[in-house]
Amino acid sequence: MSTLAGFEHILRENEPLAPYTWLRLGGEAEYFAEPTSLDELSSLVGRCRENEIPIRILGAGSNVLVRDQGVPGVVVHLAAAAFSEITWQDNTMSVGGGAKLAHLVSTSVREGLAGLEYLVGIPGSVGGALHSNVGTENHDIGQWTTHAIVMTRAGEILERGRDELRFAYRYSSLDDLVILRARFALEQEDSAELIRRMQTLWIVKKSKQPSSSDAMGRIFRNPSGVRAADLIEQAGLRGAKVDTAGISEKHANFIIVQPGGASEHVLRLIDLVRSQVRERLGVELETSIEIW
Ligand SMILES: Cc1cc2nc3c(=O)[nH]c(=O)nc-3n(C[C@H](O)[C@H](O)[C@H](O)COP(=O)(O)OP(=O)(O)OC[C@H]3O[C@@H](n4cnc5c(N)ncnc54)[C@H](O)[C@@H]3O)c2cc1C
After folding, report:
1. Catalytic residue among 49, 67, 170, 221
2. pTM here?
């Protein structure tokens, strides 16, 4: 820990990462940091840079599969209140990257601000959502984003305006080390109407995905014009299993993991799905989940 001396109060060594991920799998982070302020984050990023220690940002862990052997370097978890503040004025909301997307959605709806309700039921943090421009078939977070404040890998804090931001299907140009805050321009609408719309969308979303008590991950990107889930079903893989990892019976783009599972089982199942879909349907599936 000598290269990271002085950060002991926010740093733990050999922290198991499974409890921080939706798949509840994977080994340990060599170092796991939970900074409580921007200054602490900034100093930590600087120290890692000086010592060439790899650094990664973990949001709510709904889009990462941590390998069984764990992750070298520092994993930073933006769990502190300093990174999750939500404020609003007129039709604009400003939100910390560590805030829960669900919290942003429910606050926007309550305040009569329309647009983000379509993201109801998508797990994760606002930073994670912006990192891959999460969304549904017709709506994504990028369409409402006007600014982002980021920390670059060099430790600089920059504001990226709309003209610099590019969003496409599950793609965002925001690939800086940390998305610290973002601003959204929304549309004013009746709050009661918005709450009804959000509730309906939530019921539909919930009915289509596995139970939230399962350890699960949403695995593949939809190739253009087709749903990955449809391809997996057409390849006859609904319910397919490798050891503790199985394709969900309810939605074929989800992998469910039984207790006591291993990331290696998920990785082998991903390989099986990719090779079968390629052989049977001639389509190359790409993962949307990030493998650490
Ligand atoms: C049940 C379920 C349903 C889902 N439904 C959808 C859906 O309908 N639509 C959809 O698009 N996705 C969906 N997903 C995928 C997932 O919810 C999103 O990708 C989510 O936004 C990831 O956010 P996170 O905070 O969990 O990120 P993590 O999984 O923690 O991290 C993912 C990536 O984001 C980066 N990251 C996280 N926070 C920051 C930050 N502050 N600054 C910089 N980088 C950061 C990480 O470094 C990592 O590279 C679903 C996943 C699950 C498990």
Report:
1. 170
2. 0.95
